[in-house]
Amino acid sequence: MQFDGFDWDEGNLAKCRKHGLSPREIEEILSGPITLILPDGRHSGTETRSIAIGRTATGRHAFVAFTIRERDGRLLLRPISARYMHAKEVRRYEQQIARLRD
């Protein structure tokens, strides 16, 4: 996915930090090899939202909810919320990925 940067303010910084992920980790996930991006139709009221599943630089799996915004001709990713995946979620996710690869 090609984009020009991130859209941070106190609102989304606080919400993302709430679950223990730093802005740096979230940017790593969204800038690196994202394993999966899914539409988040349940929370896409006024704007289209997506969920990315990826790994931090330390290898922890995480979900990042985000939207794409255009500002001054630049395409920016705005993280909305982020959290680490629970062990059960990681196992289920890895099983599904393995099935897709077979």
TrEMBL record:
Any Pfam family from its record, for instance, is BrnT_toxin
Q: Domain of life, per the record? A: Bacteria
Protein name, UniProt field: Uncharacterized protein
